Amino acid sequence: MNNIKSEYLVGLIFGLSVPFIWGAWIVISRFGVITSLNAYDITALRLGVASLIVLPIILTRGLSGLSLKRATIFSIGVGAPFALTSFLGMSLAPIAHAGVLTNGSIPIFTAIFALLFLSERLSKKRFLAMFIIIFGGLCIGGDSILSSASYSLFLGDLLLIAAGALFSLYLTALDKWKPEVIQTIVAVPVISGVIYLPIWLLFLPSKIMDFNNFPPWSDIALQGGFQGVISSFIVIMLLTRATRSIGATTVATLLAGGPAIAVVLGVFILNENPSILSWAGVSIATIGMILAVKKEPQKTL
Question: What is the tally of structural domains in the chain?
Fold first, then answer.
């Protein structure tokens, strides 16, 4: 019993750290796509830096025992497709939308995928926690969501929801197959990088390739370091370890607290001044997170 509690506690600590990194990721990514870079460049930096880091591993150990099919599914869930939909969505929609729609949709899609592929039913307590967190996220982005939306904003919202669905697929695959950490951190950047980077170099618009108006090196270093190291490795390791201990649905519920953290970080990084409604959302989402992290008692036969 002590080992079970210890395992759950370790997974919980790792899972709780991810929303803070996720909140920072929303703000930094939004900053990147509205300043000197575009979504295609940031995706390339994310995959390029991560691929270089894991290159020695892939040359010596391959996919570390992970099948190509599973590696491809992991790569779809959190590799190039997820990165592109996220960054393109953030280029069209503000931080509040990114937090509400992506993070808010993750627990919903994860619950659907868990029911379909893991036969995992949603408990009443977890359903209530998801509802509270999503409602808090809606409060955070309420001012923007209730405003008149343009076509580009609507498209951005759809892309952000799609990003949430892709990430939910990744979480469900983690829960189903329970891979080793080394397998996930190698498979995602390599498979996505091999496919995406040549397409980016040859066909996609790029500000990095515009040598007459080359972006500041500081911006490139920020996105390359955060996207290619923190998002591609640290978060993946934390998510993989947390999901093995506390399950995909719980991890997805914790991630829904990211919008509240993004609002707080936005005050300091982007000089945003949240409304009273947004601050109310921070409190509501936090309550939902506290409810979500309480472990449900195990049923005995």
Answer: 1
Boundaries of domain holding 210: 7-293
Pair of tokens at residue 263: 């609002």
Whether residue 284 is contained in a domain is answered as yes
How many Cβ atoms sit within 10 Å of the Cβ of residue 212?
4
* 88 found inside a domain: yes
pLDDT of 169 > 90? The answer is yes
- Asked if residue 298 belongs to a domain, the reply is no
Q: Does the pLDDT of residue 40 top 50, yes or no?
A: yes
CA distances from 30 to 17, 88, 96, 259 (A): 21, 10, 10, 13
- Residue pLDDT, tens place only, 210-222: 888 899 999 999 9
Q: Does the residue 299 lie in any domain?
A: no
pLDDT tens-digit map of 176-186:
998 887 888 88
